[in-house]
């Protein structure tokens, strides 16, 4: 059975987050451990951590931690990654199995392969120093100097990794569309699916972020909407979710703020497509 997950926001504490995921009957979830506006990590004491771990072991196998946007992995300048090390320490304590990363920007470097080098060296060092979890690199809506809008950057990256087994990819439909892959057009959607296959292979993709986008194709605007209320549209999203090459890949929704009832409706809709 294909797994369906949800991105959840920490509203009170991490235990409530796991309980919410259980109530919504998702197979797994993803969350941030930082406040979006400030880039500050949640403060957790040892009891919070212990309670969370107990419950997550009981209820979930795979959990995805989305690393904060404040970490730029593709920086070609001197860059301290204190926040990243702190986040990674928490990932281990909380027993997340996967970390999801946006590749970041190689601002100041005009040559794409050199920009990808900066990302590769960061990813190589995380893989080397952190043996526990899988690193999942997500495509983005922005163009170069951001890495990972153009899917061919992932091909370049794979060739530069010391140990590519531990590195997988996440394909976000809203990001792909807004970057310029027109998933709303069925023929172009099929071409996109084949393009991923030719660049990295779908076996390297371990997560789909199924989102609609308020921004138009090529707008580079990344504002998620409820499914069907954006520019990709319900038929195109359903078709993407049902693409044969993706059929065993877990799928996760990252909707805008909505009530639990609305979340349930979104989940039920996608379940009716993929389960
Ligand atoms: Zn995403």
Number of helices: 9
Number of structurally distinct domains: 1
CATH architecture name: Alpha-Beta Barrel
**Biggest sheet layout:** 8 strands, parallel, barrel
N to C succession of SSEs: EHEHEHEHEHEHHEEEHEH
Helical residue percent band = 25-40%
Structural class per helix/strand content? alpha/beta
Strand line-up of the largest beta sheet:
1-2-3-4-5-6-7-10
Outline the structure in words.
- The strands form two sheets. An eight-stranded parallel β-barrel has the order 1-2-3-4-5-6-7-10.
- It is built from nine helices and ten strands.
- Strand 5 (134-138), helix 5 and strand 6 form a beta-alpha-beta unit.
- It has one domain (4-274): Alpha-Beta Barrel (TIM Barrel), CATH 3.20.20.
- The chain has helices spanning 14-23, 46-59, 82-93, 112-129, 152-160, 173-179, 186-199, 234-241, 260-274; strands at residues 4-7, 28-32, 64-66, 98-101, 134-138, 167-172, 205-209, 212-213, 224-225, 251-253.
- Helices cover 39% and strands 14% of the residues.
- The mean pLDDT is 93.
- With 275 residues, it is of the alpha/beta class.
- The protein is globular and about 45 Å long.
- Zinc ion (ZN) binds at residues 138, 172, 209, 254.
